[in-house]
From TrEMBL:
InterPro entries: AB_hydrolase_4_sf, AB_hydrolase_fold. This is Embryogenesis-associated protein EMB8. It comes from the Eukaryota. It comes from Gossypium anomalum. Belongs to the AB hydrolase superfamily. AB hydrolase 4 family. The chain crosses the membrane at residues 21-46, 630-652. Keywords: Membrane, Transmembrane, Transmembrane helix. One of its GO terms (molecular function) is short-chain carboxylesterase activity.
Length: 669
């Protein structure tokens, strides 16, 4: 018993001695020790590789290439690319995949330039914004609003498909577009539906009531009123009555497996510029869409070569990966917030682009003439505006579930699956995955992925499929993050942009470019796609519209006069020369590819054709500074209003005769 008590006392004394010894250590030493432990934890948690780079003499990591041993793409093209056979060294102060990815999204150091915007209307009514940057814009060192691309131009054309919730203003897209344009290529960024400042297009029936008040009351009042109305110099006010908004409304939203937009845009560009070699670049989700499209259409694609950057490859594996660790969950949450912002884009916003009316129905357009309201021209109109995403998602999906989503999987469950008619989320991921289509790709394809990508895991990379396809070369880098790959002390360059530019340049100068296979069987009738022609400023012969102003490095907005995506809609009258070009130009034909059953309708296509023709005719008639067109409308107004005016005069004269007759009768009496 005494032995146990003495043992307890001795152990207690030992603890006291240890405590006294710890108290003798200065507090500064504790702070330093805590900071060292914290730095080591963060170094491993954020996957830094600075010390690895330091001990390797900052030589960088080699690029690993995976390809078929007999691949003509490797031996004829990639073997001549010095960058792909070199090393990649990350910017020292960004030696972490998470730092690189965050820096790209929040800063990115993008070059400053402006795009030209072209609005492409798909056959289902959806609107796709095509943002152009030509080599001449960079070579001249100034932005020229009147510059257009000739149909016979042979300058290589590159189509860029951005990633999830990204558009042409994203930093990495601007790095890519500027790099390609600097080397003499024309670049067009095909923004996803609902992105790039362009929302879903709404075309509904409307009635426009126009009145002219305070008209001059003299014998020429009626003629002056018409002229005032035509020149928009009088006091006009418009009343829009939205009733019976009809079915010319696109219910199609893009998703990770939606290849139809890429197909129709690429086919349209190939049709517009048949002599220009066409290349395609996809980033992140855009890379998945591009590879899936190339595998679906195989040898029928008009693409000469392609590049896929940081593709997720297998969406099911990616879904499991992004929910695995704490940092991945943060990325998942950030992407979900972006998707929720995409779904919450405003409500109905009107945009009146001149007068676009069909002379088929009746509308109350009138002016005041001696206190009489006389209808001028009976017309029926189509209102061209923008439908926000929120009303559509509220109608087609589970809006409450979308607002409560905490992950991409939740958003896909409440939105994507319901809109795209997928049974489950896993079904959507399996059908949208591009891995099963890799073996079918017949176009020279370079795939670049980082093994430390915090968003798209290396586990989903189809190593065997890429090795089995002779048209594919897979380049994997140990570091780089997601779409970042910053290099240099200042971090002003992206390695994959230089590698892509070099690969496409060597491919273009080689004999290995893909040529579209000519079909022996009769091709299907191509579906007409309408390009919005006006009345925007400086619309060229190929439908390109100039963006006014310059975009600064810190400002991610594209300045243009379309009014789409901006708070205040702007309607700008085109010049006489522009209107003559618009009149002479025919509607642009869309692609001949198949359109999904739920999104295609021949009636809607005809509606777009009629609207385009009416726009050109009336814009030419109204906005040309030509007296003949004004007097032509005056003549139409007189002819259409004369019966009613004649009836009013007859009533007035009959009343006068009755008064004279009654006066004569009373005099006789």
């Amino acid at each position: 018993m005494d032995w146990s008590i003495s043992w307890d006392e001795s152990s207690l004394n030992a603890y006291k001695e240890v405590f006294r010894a710890l108290c003798l250590i200065p507090i500064l030493h504790y702070v330093i020790a805590f900071m060292v432990i914290w730095v080591v934890f963060l170094y491993n948690f954020l996957e830094f590789h600075f010390f690895q780079d330091f001990f390797s003499g900052f030589r960088g990591a080699p690029v690993a290439l995976t390809f078929h041993p007999t691949s003509h793409i490797y031996h004829g093209v990639v073997s001549k690319c010095k960058i792909l056979h070199g090393r990649y060294l990350a910017t020292p102060w960004l030696s972490s995949p998470h730092f690189q990815t965050a820096f790209l999204n929040f800063f990115g150091n993008p070059p400053a330039f402006s795009y030209r915007r072209q609005l492409f209307h798909a056959s289902d009514g959806g609107t796709i914004a095509l943002d152009w940057l030509t080599s001449s814009d960079i070579s001249r060192g100034a932005f020229e609003v009147n510059h257009t691309i000739s149909k016979d131009d042979t300058t290589p054309l590159v189509v860029v498909i951005p990633g999830l919730t990204s558009d042409s203003t994203s930093s990495y897209i601007k790095h890519l577009a500027f790099g390609l344009a600097t080397h003499g290529w024309n670049v067009v960024v095909s923004n996803h539906r609902g992105l790039g400042g362009v929302s879903i297009t709404l075309i509904g029936e409307m009635y426009l009531a126009m009145s002219v008040c305070h008209a001059p009351r003299n014998k020429y009042a009626w003629m002056k009123t018409i002229v005032y109305w035509l020149k928009a110099e009088g006091f006009l006010y418009f009343l829009w009555k939205f009733s019976d908004v009809k079915s010319y409304l696109s219910d199609c939203f893009y998703n990770a497996g939606w290849t139809e937009d890429a197909r129709v845009v690429i086919d349209y560009l190939h049709h517009q510029y048949p002599k220009a070699p066409l290349f395609a670049i996809g980033t992140s989700i855009g890379a998945n869409i591009l590879v899936k499209y190339l595998g679906e259409d195989r040898e029928k694609v008009p693409v000469a070569g392609a590049v896929a950057i940081c593709s997720p490859w297998d969406l099911l594996i990616g879904d499991r990966f992004i929910c695995r660790r704490l940092l991945q969950k943060l990325y998942d949450r950030a992407l979900t917030i972006g998707l929720q912002g995409y779904a919450k884009l405003g409500g109905i916003q009107s945009e009146v682009s001149g007068i676009v009316y069909l002379v088929t129905g009746f509308c109350s357009i009138s002016f005041t003439l001696w206190s009489l309201t006389v209808p001028i021209i009976p017309v029926s109109g189509f209102f061209v505006g923008r439908m926000g995403h929120e009303p559509l998602y509220s109608r087609l999906a589970n809006w409450e579930g979308i607002k409560k989503s905490r992950s991409i999987r939740d958003f896909d469950n409440f939105a994507t699956c319901l809109v795209g008619k997928f049974e489950t989320v896993d079904t959507y991921y399996r059908r949208s995955t591009s891995t099963p289509y890799v073996l079918n790709v017949s176009v020279p394809l370079l795939c670049i992925s980082a093994l430390d990508d915090p968003v798209c895991t290396r586990e989903a990379i189809p190593w065997d499929e890429c090795r089995a396809n002779k048209n594919i070369v897979l380049a994997t880098i140990k570091h780089g993050g997601h779409l970042a790959f910053f290099e240099g002390i200042t971090g002003s360059r992206l390695w994959w942009v230089r590698a892509t530019d070099e690969f496409l340049g060597v491919l273009h100068s080689s004999s290995h470019m893909h040529k579209k296979k000519t079909e022996i069987t009769e091709q299907k009738e191509s579906i007409e796609s309408s390009i919005d022609q006006g009345p925007y400023v400086n619309i060229g012969e190929d439908g390109i519209m100039a963006a006014v102003g310059s975009t600064h490095a810190g400002n991610k907005s594209v300045e243009h006069f379309t009014g789409l995506g901006s708070i205040q809609d702007k309607t700008v009258l085109a010049t006489e020369q522009t209107q003559q070009q618009t009149e002479a130009k025919s509607d642009v034909a869309g692609s001949g590819g198949e359109v999904s059953g739920e999104c295609s309708s021949l009636q809607r296509i005809k509606c777009f054709d009629v609207i385009g023709a009416s726009k050109r005719w009336l814009n030419h008639l109204l906005f040309r500074k030509n007296g003949k067109s004004v007097w032509l409308l005056v003549y139409i107004a007189i002819i259409t209003s004369w019966p009613i005016l004649g009836s009013a005069l007859r009533i007035f004269s009959s009343k006068k005769k009755l008064r004279n007759l009654s006066a004569a009768t009373s005099h006789r009496r």
